[in-house]
Amino acid sequence: MNYLLLPFFSFLIGIIVGLTGVGGASLITPMLIFMFQVPPSVAVSSDIVAATLMKAIGGFKHWQQQTIDLQVVKWLAFGSVPGSLTGVGIFYLIEQNGTLNPNNILLRLLGVMMMFVTLLALAQLLLKTFFMKLQLPELPELDLKTRSGRVLTLGLGAVLGCIVGLTSVSSGSMFALVLIAFFRLDSRKLVGTDISQAAVLLVFTSLGHLTLGTVNWSLVLPIWLGTVPGVLLGAKLCGSTPQNILKLVTYSILVMVSWKLVDQA
Q1: d(CA 145, CA 125)
Q2: Which phi and psi angles does 108 have, rounded to 5°?
Q3: Residues of the domain holding 83
Q4: Environment class of 147 (CB within 10 Å of its CB; exposed 0-12, middle 13-18, buried 19+)
Q5: Minimal CB count within 10 Å: which of 55, 56, 110, 213?
Q6: Does the pLDDT of residue 263 top 90, yes or no?
Q7: Of all residues in the chain, what percent carry a pLDDT higher than 90?
């Protein structure tokens, strides 16, 4: 494996994440599997640990800027953290089951989740771009001051957290869709809240994966070396770059990658 190329490609992915907000796991995990021939179980665990630092730095920055809805972060975390640990437990059972092929299962799960998340995001982008006046029915807004609002938020967090613990995908992208659909946050707090909840979720998910022994630090450190400066540069360039074009290209790449994952499995 050429470890010199890993920080370079991670840097490019970091720029894309900083520019578009598209989750790094959706790009880094397939990169590790296809370009560097890393087994899916090791790629998932290493990517989760690597993504934690990137999200934590971003979350701290938004906390300083007061662009976070702490109530939303708290109630999503109450659901997503135990959900993610459940996902890690399922991941462990798949790894330990001698009658199953864990790599094939994880490849298919990764592909299906990436395809689902990407198509949802792509549909949202196309509707906003070409059908700006289209009035779509809105989902009910969740009120965290009510018991039902808190319970539904916990449930959403638990389901998505389980997916993150199992596949590493959607710690940001699926949660962003939930924030848009159910909480109506303004654009500044949307990004900050999404990154912050992902940071909390990934800290606990990382601890779970570290106990499994499937984290490869020779992958994590080069990814950190590339993604952290890449994200900072991408965030700086974000204001002067046409977002819709970048997102359309990125989503198209993700659709092709997710199809290849499913097909290869």
Answers
A1: 31
A2: -65, -45
A3: 5-264
A4: exposed
A5: 213
A6: no
A7: 24
Cβ atoms 44, 167 nearer than 8 A: yes
> What confidence tens digit (pLDDT) does each residue in 16-49 have?
777 766 666 678 888 898 889 898 889 988 988 9
Closest CA to 14 of 212, 207, 236: 236
Number of structural domains (the chain) is 1
Amino acid at residue number 100 = L
Which residues, 6+ apart, have CB-to-CB distance to 110 below 8 Å?
Answer: 29, 30, 40, 44, 167, 168, 169, 258, 261
Joined together, the tokens standing for residue 180 give 């848009």
Spatial contact of 199 and 56, defined as CB atoms under 8 Å apart:
yes
How far is the C-alpha of 32 from the C-alpha of 199, rounded, in Å? 22
Reply yes or no on whether the pLDDT at 244 is more than 80.
Answer: no
Contact by Cβ (8 Å): 22, 145:
no
Quote the CA–CA distance of 35 and 157 in Å, as a whole number: 32
Cα separation, 223 vs 253, in Å, equals 20
Q: Which residues contact 129 (CB under 8 A, 6 or more apart)?
A: 244
Q: Are 49 and 220 in contact (CB under 8 A)?
A: yes
Q: What is the pTM of this model?
A: 0.76
The answer to whether residues 182 and 156 touch, using CB atoms and an 8 Å cutoff, is yes
Locate 34 and state its tokens. Answer: 């296809």
pLDDT for residue 58: 78
Contacts of 203 (CB under 8 A, 6+ apart): 52, 56
- DSSP per residue over 222-238, as a string? HHHHHHHHHHHHHHHHG
At 135, list the tokens. Answer: 């009035």
CA distance 23 to 6: 18
Angle value at C-alpha 213, between 159 and 203, nearest 5 degrees: 45
